[in-house]
């Protein structure tokens, strides 16, 4: 689907599709449902914590600097899925679908998206939202902007846990996929609404419940 996507919009004039009231309502929903999620999913947090602790090969949580709303950096939280020192600090690498740097437990967590549970905290404190573009590292943002400088338009809004690009474009392991994702995210920026967010969340839950890997 993503490969044939055609979005004909004038990116230089894209503004946030939500008005002030909708943005405030969206933020209230984020706070409420992230609190509920942290509470209801606490058994899953404990389960994953025990699994990763038993590996005895490094910390349970993984923190990585990403760029969010306003172009400001923040630390995204994940359960660690990769072996320690699996990336050259001077040359960041993109995650692959079948990445050999994954630990056995990490592969399971990644396939079922359990590694992203700690991002509920990022949503609660305002670094992220449930729906929005996936936050990227500055290294890759610089590479994307050499191809399309409109990436900076995304800084009008909070990044998110899920999006249409996340659902249909999969892991962005190539520059081509990054540029497709950017176009989908810009499309979301211009036409987003509370109803559209609800549709994205419902679609994400439905696909995950049906076993689709996204």
Provide a descriptive summary of the structure in words:
The chain is mainly alpha-helical. It has one domain (18-83, 98-209). Helices cover 46% and strands 9% of the residues. It is built from eight helices and four strands, in the order H-H-E-E-H-H-E-H-E-H-H-H. It has helices at residues 20-40, 42-55, 104-111, 119-125, 138-147, 164-169, 175-191, 194-209, and strands at 61-67, 73-79, 129-131, 160-162. The strands form two sheets. It has a two-stranded antiparallel sheet with strand order 1-2. The protein has a two-stranded parallel sheet with strand order 3-4. Strand 1 and strand 2 (73-79) form a beta hairpin. Helix 1 packs across helix 4 (119-125). The longest helix has 21 residues, at 20-40. It is globular. The model is unreliable at 1-11 (pLDDT under 50).
Which properties best describe this structure?
mainly alpha, two-stranded antiparallel ribbon, two-stranded parallel sheet, 4 strands, globular
* Total domain units: 1
Overall outline = globular
Q: What percentage of amino acids are in beta strands?
A: 5-15%
Helical residue percent?
Answer: 40-55%
- Total strands: the figure is 4
Largest sheet composition? 2 strands, antiparallel
Work out the helix count: 8
Distance between the amino and carboxyl termini: 13 Å
Q: Compute the gyration radius: what is it?
A: 17 Å
SSE pattern, N- to C-terminal: HHEEHHEHEHHH
Biggest sheet strand order reads: 1-2
Average pLDDT across residues?
86
Which ranges are low-confidence, i.e. pLDDT below 50, for 5 or more consecutive residues? 1-11
């Amino acid at each position: 689907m993503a490969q044939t996507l055609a979005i004909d919009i004038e990116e230089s004039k894209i503004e946030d599709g939500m008005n002030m009231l909708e943005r405030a309502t969206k933020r209230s929903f984020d706070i409420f449902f992230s609190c509920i999620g942290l509470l209801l999913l606490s058994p899953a947090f404990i389960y994953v914590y025990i699994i990763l602790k038993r590996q005895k090969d490094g910390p349970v949580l993984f923190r990585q600097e990403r760029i969010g709303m306003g172009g400001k950096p923040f630390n995204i939280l994940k359960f660690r899925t990769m072996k320690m020192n699996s990336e050259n600090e001077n040359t960041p690498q993109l995650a692959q679908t079948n990445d050999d740097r994954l630990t056995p437990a990490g592969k399971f967590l990644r396939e079922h998206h359990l590694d992203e549970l700690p991002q509920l905290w990022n949503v609660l404190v305002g670094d992220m939202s449930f729906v929005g573009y996936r936050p990227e590292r500055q290294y890759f943002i610089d590479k994307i902007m050499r191809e399309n400088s409109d990436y900076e338009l995304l800084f009008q809004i909070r990044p998110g846990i899920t999006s249409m690009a996340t659902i249909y474009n999969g892991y962005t392991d190539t520059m081509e996929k990054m540029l497709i994702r950017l176009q989908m995210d810009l499309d979301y920026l211009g036409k987003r609404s509370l109803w559209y967010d609800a549709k994205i969340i419902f679609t994400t839950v439905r696909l995950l419940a049906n076993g689709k890997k996204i």
